[in-house]
Amino acid sequence: MYRVGKQVGDDLYVHVSTVDRMVDSHRERVRAAIAALPDGASQRINVAKINIRTARVSLLEYPAFDDDPFPALASSWTMRNGGGSSLVLRSYADSLNPPVLHRKELLVGPEHPSRARWLAITRAAEAIGLFDEPGVIGFQLNWKRAIAAKGYSLVGDEFLPLGNDAGELAVDLAGGGLPSVQRHLTALARTAISAPVQLLLRHGLLAPERSFFDYGCGRGDDIAALTTEGFVASGWDPHYAPDRERVPADVVNVGFVINVIEDPAERVDVLHRAFTLTRGVMAVAVMLYGPESMECQFGDGVITTRGTFQKYFNQAELKDFLDHVVHQEAFLVGPGIAFVFADKEWEQRFLASRYRRQNVGTRLLQLRARARVRERPVARSKLEELEPPAPHPLLGELWRISLDLGRHPDDVEVPMLSQVVAELGSLQRALRKLDRLFDQTLLEQARAVRAEDLRLYFAMQQFSKRPRYRQLEPRLQRDVKAFFGDYASAQTAGLRLLSEAADPAVLLRACQEAAESGLGWLDGDHDLQLHVSLVERIPPVLRAYVACGLQLYGDLAEVDLVRIHIGSGKISLMQFENFGGSPLPAMKRRVKVNVRRANCEVFEYGEQYPMPLLYNKSRYLNEESAGFAEQLAFDESLAASGLLGGSEFGPSAEDLAKGLKVRRLEIDGLTLIRARTVPDLDEPCGAHFSYRQLIECGETQARLSLPNVPENPESFNALRDLAVVLLDPIIEYFGAIRLTYGFCSPGLAKHIHARVAPELDQHAAHEMKRNGQPVCARGGAACDFLVDDENMREVADWIIANLPFDRLYFYGADRPIHLSNSAAQTGEAYEMVQTASGRTVPRRFAQGSG
Q: pTM above the 0.85 mark?
C-alpha cells in the first residue's frame, strides 16, 4: 500500500481524499471527527491532521488548496482527545499571518493529477534553501520573508529572482503587515526615561511640539533624554536645581516627589503648585506598598534603612488623594501612576483613545488585499491586467481616513483639505467618488469597529462625571451623531454593554469567540488568558470587563498577560521578566483585581516566593505577534521532550534545569538544542545505566583499563538517545540486559583487531579523527548486549516489531545482538551467516525464522 501523509514532529497530515489509506486507528478517529462537524463545515475541510502520540485530531480548511502552491489556513476544527469530545473552532479569517501548508504532494496519492506539479515546486523550494529552517516558515509572512531573503519572489508556481528594485515587496515584508513601531522612543524609554514619562509618550500626550516641565526633576535625567530627542523640556528641583524658574507647560510631571515628603500639608501644596503650571495634563507617580520590611513608622509613612522618608500608596488611595487635592478627576494609568487633566478636551481625547483601536483602516485594507489574492491565485502579470485603473492618490488617502474614523470625515478632519479642493473640486465631491470607487463593505466593517469602541467609551464614562453633550470635544460630537443619533442613545448603549459584562454566560460566549479567532487561550469555561497586545481585538464585552478592572488598577502599560476569570468577577494582570525576549519568561508580579468587590491584591515574586516560569507562551500570542513562529517551534520541541510532565503549571525553574541536564538539552535563545557540555560519567544515561556503564563495558577496555572517554559532547547525546530509545524499552519488556560492548574511542579501537569496523559500526558515536572527519559518518551510537536466559532471535524479533532503530546485527540465539540508534533510523536488520568458505557475511534478517 502507498504510504500517504506528511509527518511534522508527532503530527501526520493527509488530504481528506486519502483518509481511507490511513492505519485503522487513525482512520476511525478522523472519521469520527468529520462526523462531529457542524452542518456545512465538512464540505470545506480538505486536510486532516492527527497527532500520533496524543490522538488529537484537527480538520483543516485551505480554500486555495488546489490552486495555491502554499495555501493559507482559513479555519481548524480540533477534537483534543481524538474522540468523544466536541470540536473547537479556530478561525484565521482575520489573521494577517495565517499558517501555510508546504509539501502538498505528500498529502495525496500518486494518482492525484496535480501531484507532479506540486512535487516540482517543492523541489524548486528545496533547491534555493527555503526549507533550511523549517521551524519558522510555517506562517505566511515568515514564508514570504524567507523567500525574499533568498532573493526570490513567488509568482504563480515559480520562484523568480528579484531584480535590483524590490519595490512594493520589500515594503510589505519590512512592515510585515503590522503597525510600525517607533523604536527610537522605545529604546530611549527602556534605558533612560522614567515610567510616568514613558506613559505620557505611549498615550501620545507628550510630543515634540508640546512643552514639558519636570516638577521635582532630581538630577534631570528625563529632561536630558527628552531634549536629546528634540522635545522642549525644562524642570525644577529644590535640591539639584533650586534656582531654575518654575514655568507653565503643556505637560507637567511630578514623578516620585510627593511620596518622599514627610509633611502631608506640603504634599498638598506641591501638587497645587504643579497643577497651576499645567496647561494640558499633569502626571503623578508614587511608590506603592511592597513587601513588609524593617522600616520604622514615621507619621503616615516610614523612615527607610537609608534614612529617607517614604509615604506608600495603593491604587485607590492615590486616586482618592488626587481627586480631593486637585479637585479634578485622576485617571490611573499604571502601578502608582495617574494623569490629571487641566484641559478637558485633552481629557476626552485621552479617554476615547484608551478604548479606540489603532490602525483599523490599515488592517481592513490588508485583510481585503489578502482575501482578493486568495480568491484569484493567478500570476502577478495577469492579476494586474484584471485590476481597474488606480484611483487618484488623494482619494486613496481620504478612503484610509474614512476607514479609520468609521465614517466620512468633516472638513477639519482632512489634513490635506486644500489639495482635495484644488484637485478634486470639493470635499463632498471627493466623498461621492469614494462611494462609487471603493468597497463600501469595508466602511461598514470600520463603522462597526468604531461603534464598538464608542460603546466601550460611554460604558466607562459611567464611572466618572459625565460631561454634557456640548462639552464633548468636536470629534466625539460628530461620532455620537454618526453612530448613535443622539447623546442619550450613546449613553444607553454604554450602560447595556456594562450590563452584558456582568453576565458570566455572555462572557463565556465572548471568550469562546475570542479563542476561535486566535485571541488567547481558553481554559474550558474557567478563564481566557492572552497577551496584552491582543486586548483591543477581543469582543467589546470582554474589553469592557477588562476596562472595569482597570478602573481599580490603572493601565496595561506594564502588563504582559491578562487572564479573564469568567465566573468569579476577577481579572489577573501578570508581569514577567523579559517577556518578549525569553522563551520561558519568569513572573515577577501578579495583580488580581476583583471587579465585583472593587479591590486589588498584588503578589510579588522573587524574594519570598520563587518566580514561576511561563510555559507554552505561544498559546497566549497570535500568529501575527513578533517572534510567534519561533516561540511556537520552541514550545512544541519542549513539549516533545517530555520535560513538562503532568503538572498544570509545568516544572519549577530548578526542576526544569535538572530535567534539561538529564535529557542532555540546553535552551539557546528561542531554540531547544542538544547539550554542548561533557557530563560526569556517573550521571544517569537513561533509566537503567550511567554513561560509565556504556563506556566501560567492553572486554578489551576492562583488560587494558584504557580511559575510552568521549571527547565530543554529541557522543554523550547519542549514548543517551541509544539508552532512552532502545535499551530502556528492551529492559522494561525483557528485564535486565548485559552490555558486552559499548562506546569505543579511536584510542581503544587500535587495540581491537577482530570483527570491528569503526567507520561503519557506530560504536565511536560522534568522535572525530585527527583530520577533523568523523570516525563513523553515520553518527548515532551502538552497543552489543545479551538478555540472559532468552533466545536472542526472539529478542531481535521483538525489537524489529516494536522499536525504531538504525541497524541490528544478529549473530546467533545465544550471542549478543549489535544494535544502533541514529537520526536516520533505517530499520535495517541483518543476520550474520557463515559461508562454506568460513567467512561471516550479512544476510537480511528474516523475522520468526528461528
A: no
